[in-house]
Amino acid sequence: MKSRLLVAAVGVPVLLYVVLCAPVIVLQVGIAALSAVAGYELLRCVEAPKEWQQAAALGALMLVLAICFKEESVAVLIMGYVILFFFCAVLKGGAVKLLTVLATAFASVFIPFAFTSFLSIHELTEHRGYLLLPFLFSFGSDTFAFFTGRIIGKRKLAPKVSPNKTVAGAVGGLVGDMLCGLGFAFVMNTYFGQSLGYVDLALMGLFCSVIAQIGDLSFSMIKREFDVKDYGHIFLAHGGVLDRFDSVLFVAPVVVELLPLVL
Description:
Helix content is 76%, strand content 3%. It is mainly α. A hairpin with a 3-residue loop joins strand 1 and strand 2. The protein is globular and about 60 Å long. It starts with a helix and ends with a helix.
């Protein structure tokens, strides 16, 4: 409990500073670091060889940097990197499992692309407060689902994937994210001169809660299959990057697509 409170006491202010106040270069460096660590965690979880774990981290880092510096060769970089992994697997004569190759491609492409959604949000909006939306909808859904499930949850949602999640908790997460959307719209409209529609943000929260819960269950399924409790321990008792940002990785790209519809 002490380590959880310590991480929260330090982590929340740091997160708010990087997202709301820090120079963009700090945000870019943070995204690159998180992507590299997340890629490494995923490959370690699926029991890939050490060099593939390092390669996944390097690939994620390279892709984030390419996107940050707006290199036109990003698509070529992605395809070339993925093809290289398949080529290496072929040369190994089947010694490398297909799962390892696919996990490396996922870690090197999807994870950094998802994290760089924050850069897209920054470019789309005139206020950095919108960068909080992926966190608000991800953590909000999880928090409301947790407490609703603890209070009235009985029927299990997906017992083989995540035994503690309940149907009532899932519904609580949906309602909670709608309230988060309404709260965000109220704050932005009242204190920061925005003109967000309350219904629009509530519906956005509802949809993002569905995506957040899918993301959470997806990464839980991987841990369950490989009998791993946490992806890492960089956040002490809170686990690793993928433990904390699993649903954020799914929600952030969705926010990028939905924001133009509500602004």
